[in-house]
Amino acid sequence: MTDIHQTAIVDENAKIGQNVSIGPYSAIGPEVELGDGIELISHVVISGRTTIGANTRVFPFASIGHQPQDQKYNGEASSLEIGCNNVIREYVTMNPGTEGGGMVTRIGNNCLFMISAHVAHDCQLGDHIVMSNVATLAGHVTVEDCAIIGGLAAVHQFCRIGTMSIIGGCSKVVQDIPPYMMADGNPAATRALNKEGLKRNDVSEETQTALKQAHRILFRENLTFTKGVEKARAEIPASDEIEHLLTFIETSQRGIAR
Question: Catalytic residue among 121, 128, 140, 215, which?
Fold first, then answer.
């Protein structure tokens, strides 16, 4: 049973799943697809070629799928893909992709977007991400699984935010934040291992110890990243987490915040 409030405007061409609730004064465009069990509480506007996965909740005054804030955008039929089980709080804005970024903005599953968070065009987000109040991503940002972005933090375009990392509130992120680390400041710098994040994600004590050793080599021994990665590979037992951290650093285009 789908429940559409009498004040909501839902285009006849929109695709609406089962057990969807569309609250008062919401507006749904013709190319929108809503999965099963979605709840739009009220005053939600969803436009463009936007797909939202099952069991996502969207709170009042969220604006989803409208034209990117990119002066190069020329009306191309780009899209926004949002996964399942997300929570999108009040005044959140999310924009579709552009021709210059692959034509699609993607958001994974089980994420929380707190009040006034912004996801710009062509961003690529994984699963279990938290964006706190007024956290903002510029265009073309990549955020890996289980990352947390603190309130009022701003991330420069084309930056990458590594898995299980955490960025402190009010930080200015202009370079890549490595996986498993805590970053903070203006500009943001890598401060320490994100021990609490690793614990919450059931990373073993052995792996945490190895990552702590990698942090010391990469960020405390005054080595270039090239030398630090070489030393870390020589001295630290191999694991998926260590390899991901070192490969992330090796493949950075904007540089690593240190």
Answer: 121
